[in-house]
Design a protein that fits this description.
This protein is an alpha+beta fold. Helix content is 42%, strand content 17%. The protein has 9 helices and 11 strands. The strands form 2 sheets. It has a 6-stranded antiparallel sheet with strand order 1-2-11-10-7-8. It has a 5-stranded antiparallel sheet with strand order 3-4-5-6-9, covered by helices on one side. Helix 1 packs parallel to helix 3, helix 3 runs antiparallel to helix 4 and helix 5 packs antiparallel against helix 6. The longest helix is centred in the N-terminal third of the chain and has 45 residues. The radius of gyration is 30 Å and the shape is elongated. The N terminus is likely disordered.
């Protein structure tokens, strides 16, 4: 997930393959000419085996087979010019080259089939992302919203990080969370919580009641024997989450934090304030062990301010020296920008900060600003 060149500046797969194919053919011609002109004791025929072997790394089985045939033909030309086709040395070189060409052609076939399977899996992952983690609307009531999801795995489209927004009669409710664990199990837990939030956000009267419902949904799934891990052992899954309620007519935000990193509030003057609650609830799925009572706390959220929700994959990203990503400082540099511009800048800074341009964990961010007008 490093930086990418604009689409018009990146060479396409066909252009890259065409260039490499020219290099391979040039290699065959060079080895053939040099081998013909070399002294009788020098034999460069074994270098021709590199042509089909290299081709198999970027081309399909048909092109690999053709390059192998050209290499065999070149070896035959060398044998005829220097001695004869039935010469013992050249005969063994021809047999070895034919066998190598057959093997690498078969491997090219396997690689091509594997790439097709990866393309199919990626399309399924993209479809699952659209179903599980729906894109947030850019405008909800008086709020402007932007979101970004960065998967740690190059081929992954969605993991255990989640976010959602739901419109109510008096405002907008927001959810951001992080499922413990990875893989399909984490995706299933994320889908469970997102479905519960979307179904109950507009039905529960107050925020603590909504969080209690979400906790009951997550805990009931953990109590389900079908949710146990291999061998019937408990999965010990839990979800950190922050649930917020932003009224339309009050410049404030209500927050229930269940073990999640505190949201950051970027004020109009450029100051950044962490919304630290006095009483943090345990993550969803663990309250049965603590008997926690959910309590909402209210913070000011004036027009022109921007609220940033994020997962721990953002603040735990390390550079090559092991330093964490300074989210608060980078957010302060984004004062006066729209939510989508803020996330664009933070995404760029985060990928530049992460060692090797890749994250060690999935990262999600949601930026929310309140417009000054109705």
């Amino acid at each position: 997930m490093g930086h990418r060149l604009p689409r018009g500046m990146r060479p396409g797969p066909w252009e890259t393959g065409h260039t490499l194919l020219v290099v391979v053919l040039a290699l065959i011609v060079t080895v053939t000419v040099v081998d013909i002109l070399a002294p009788p004791a020098v034999h460069l025929g074994p270098f021709l085996a590199a042509a089909p072997a290299v081709t198999a790394s970027f081309a399909g089985p048909r092109i690999t087979a053709c390059i192998g045939a050209v290499a065999v033909l070149a070896q035959a030309v060398v044998a005829i010019v220097r001695t004869s086709l039935i010469d013992l040395n050249h005969s063994f070189q021809l047999i070895a080259l034919i066998l190598i060409s057959v093997f690498v052609t078969f491997f090219a076939h396997l690689r091509e089939r594997h790439e097709k399977e990866l393309v199919q899996l990626r399309s399924v992952a993209e479809a699952a992302q659209q179903v599980v983690l729906r894109p947030l609307p850019h405008r909800v009531g008086p709020l402007h919203i932007a979101s970004v999801y960065l998967a740690a795995e190059a081929e992954a489209q969605i993991g255990g990080d989640l976010y959602a927004a739901a419109r109510t009669a008096h405002g907008t409710r927001l959810l951001i969370g992080d499922v413990r664990g990875k893989g399909l199990e984490a995706v299933g837990d994320a889908a469970l919580l997102l479905g519960a939030f979307r179904g109950a956000a507009h039905r529960q009267a107050d925020l603590p009641a909504l969080v209690s419902y979400l906790e009951g949904t997550v805990s009931s799934d953990l109590d389900d024997p079908g949710a146990a891990g291999p061998g019937g052992t408990p999965t010990e899954a839990f979800i950190t989450a922050a649930v917020l309620d932003v009224p339309d007519d009050v410049p404030a935000v209500d927050l229930v934090n269940c073990g999640h990193p505190p949201p950051l509030l970027l004020l109009r003057d450029g100051d950044v304030v962490a919304l630290e609650v006095r009483r943090t609830a345990p993550p969803l799925g663990l309250t049965e062990f603590t008997g926690s009572v959910f309590t909402a706390e209210t913070f000011a959220f004036e027009p022109g301010d921007t609220l940033l929700l994020y997962t721990d994959g953002v603040i735990e990203a390390r550079d090559q020296a092991g330093a964490f990503f300074p989210l608060t400082e980078r957010l302060a540099d984004c004062a006066g920008r729209a939510p989508h511009a803020i996330l664009g800048r933070l995404r760029q800074d985060l990928l530049a900060h992460a060692a090797g341009g890749s994250l060690g964990d999935d990262a999600a961010m949601v930026a929310v600003s309140r417009s000054a007008g109705p």
